[in-house]
Design a protein that fits this description.
The complex is a heterodimer of chains A (about 325) and B (about 120). Chain A is an alpha+beta fold and about 325 residues long. Chain A is built from eight helices and ten strands. In chain A, the strands form two sheets. Chain A has a five-stranded antiparallel beta sheet, sandwiched between helices. A five-stranded mixed beta sheet of chain A has the order 6-7-8-10-9, with helices on one face. In chain A, α5 (about 170-190) packs antiparallel against α6 (about 200-210), α5 packs antiparallel against α7 (about 230-250) and α6 (about 200-210) packs parallel to α7 (about 230-250). Chain A is rod-shaped. Chain B has about 120 residues and is of the alpha/beta class. Chain B contains five helices and six strands. A four-stranded parallel beta sheet of chain B has the order 2-1-3-6, with helices on both faces. Chain B has a two-stranded antiparallel sheet with strand order 4-5. Chain B starts with a strand and ends with a helix. The relative contact order of chain B is 0.18. Classes of the chains: A alpha+beta (about 325), B alpha/beta (about 120). At the A-B interface, α4 and α8 of A face α1 of B.
Chain lengths: ~325, ~120
């Protein structure tokens, strides 16, 4: 083998090494024992927005106006590396003048040459800025989710506690509780649906559907389209459920010929208002109940407490009526 | 004399539940109210024996109410789903008893007995 051959082998060896280094997706530097950059891969140039000629042959700490002169990195290369042959995933945070703050995992490994005297160092730099931002985001979302879950469980507990159990059978209690729970589930579905189903019309149809004993027992008059906020959906869903339950037990829906008419209007003003009316007819003669039940209290909390609205209940002999007025949270947005 | 309790809670079904639960336990309830301003107005008219506060009122912390209660010497507890309510509501909630959320009648009783010994 002559010198020419040896050179060729070394050259191809170098080319192969460079090829390997270039295929590594994370930034990588090859340093000599004096910390001068022998080689760098494409990911390094791309990630840190630097050019090849400003990098190769430069001392690491002088690269790009000293932007790699990082105390933690100096400690790693000066103190840690000489005592151990490799350091893996050493976390370093640094603010670069050009590309801003970066969170990096550094892995360094010493590679001894055949002569066992000189050595090279491979330094790989994994940019985890985006990953750690996503992790922090995930933590925040997860915390919020946990908080909401507890709130939902609190709500279910309250519903179970608010459903009258005195003087009725277990079956009746279960039916009443599950009916209310379903109204909450439906409201949640509507509030989170992204198919434009968060409108009042869809809500009225869905909340009254279980009570449509025959077609057209509950007549929904077409009204102006209205998109609702999620708390409005929850309150109105529970309200309609309670009204329909009462109608089925004592009102128009307890008689074969009874009907309910639901209609609404939106008052467009500086403070837009929703007026919703529930009118029963064709049922047995109505008498005002002697005591206010849980249902009435639930309606009051849903409309007055939660939405700052008003509920007026009229026990007319020929049919029960409820008029609901709700100030709309956002400016009404007709579709 | 009948003891009074101020309830601040923005989730309406939970507010209603706490009210019914406490009335069943023999308390007279002030509120419930869902907003800081409303709670502060109530406190101008009448000081309750104790108060029970939700920490997060629709993105607003209950902190001003807690501070008003502290300065007037009214003991209070929180009903919060947060493990560390002080992270959201500030230092005034540090070390304050939390009846938790969902709130069980048992933990409510235990905490109220500490705030206002029978």
């Amino acid at each position: 083998m002559d010198l020419e051959d040896l050179y060729r082998i070394l050259r191809t060896g170098h080319v192969q090494a460079q090829g390997i280094v270039d295929t590594v997706p994370d930034p990588m530097l090859v340093l000599d024992s004096a910390l001068t950059v022998q080689s760098a891969n494409r990911a390094f140039f791309r990630t840190f927005a630097v050019g090849r000629y400003d990098t190769i042959g430069q001392h690491l700490y002088e690269l790009g106006n000293g932007q790699w002169n990082i105390p933690e990195l100096r400690h790693l290369l000066g103190e840690v590396i000489p005592k151990s042959s490799a350091v893996i995933d050493y976390k370093v945070e640094h603010k670069f003048p050009e590309i801003g703050k970066r969170v990096m995992l550094l892995t360094a490994r010493t590679v001894f040459n055949a002569d066992n005297v000189s050595h090279l160092m491979l330094l790989s730099i994994v940019d985890i800025t985006e990953r750690s931002r996503k992790e922090a985001e995930f933590e925040a979302v997860f915390g919020e989710l946990r908080h909401r879950l507890k709130n939902v469980l609190g709500l279910v507990r309250a519903l179970a506690n608010q459903t009258k159990a005195e003087g009725i059978s277990g079956e009746e209690y279960r039916k009443a509780f599950l009916g209310r729970l379903q109204a909450v589930v439906d409201a949640n579905d509507l509030a989170f649906s992204d198919h434009g189903e968060d409108g009042l019309e869809a809500l009225v149809a869905r909340a009254t559907k279980p009570f449509q004993t025959a077609p057209e027992t509950i007549i929904i008059e077409p009204g102006p389209p209205l998109t609702l906020a999620s708390k409005e959906i929850m309150s109105l869903s529970l309200l309609l459920h309670e009204l329909a339950t009462n109608a089925l037990k004592y009102g128009a829906l307890s008689a074969p010929a009874g009907t309910v008419r639901v209609r609404w209007d939106v008052e467009q003003d500086d403070h837009p208002l929703l007026r919703l009316s529930w009118r029963e007819s064709g049922g047995p003669p109505v008498r005002k109940p002697t005591s206010t039940g849980y249902g009435t209290q639930l309606i009051q909390f849903a409309i007055a407490y939660n939405l700052g609205g008003k509920v007026e209940q009229n026990y007319r002999t020929e049919g029960f009526e409820a008029e609901i007025v709700v100030p709309l949270e956002r400016a009404a947005r007709p579709d | 004399m009948q003891k009074t309790i101020l309830i601040v809670e923005d989730e309406f079904i939970i507010a209603m539940d706490l009210k019914v639960m406490l009335e069943r336990l023999g308390w007279r309830v002030l509120g419930p109210v869902a907003r800081v301003a409303h709670a502060l107005r109530l406190l101008e008219d009448e000081l309750p024996t104790v108060a029970l506060l939700d920490v997060n009122l629709g993105d607003h912390p209950v902190t001003p109410v807690a501070e008003a209660l502290r300065s007037r010497g009214v003991p209070f507890a929180v009903a919060s789903a947060y493990d560390k309510p002080e992270l959201f509501g500030g230092a005034v909630l540090e070390g304050i008893a939390n009846v938790g959320k969902p709130t069980s009648e048992w933990s409510l009783l235990e905490v109220l007995a500490k705030l206002s010994p029978p």
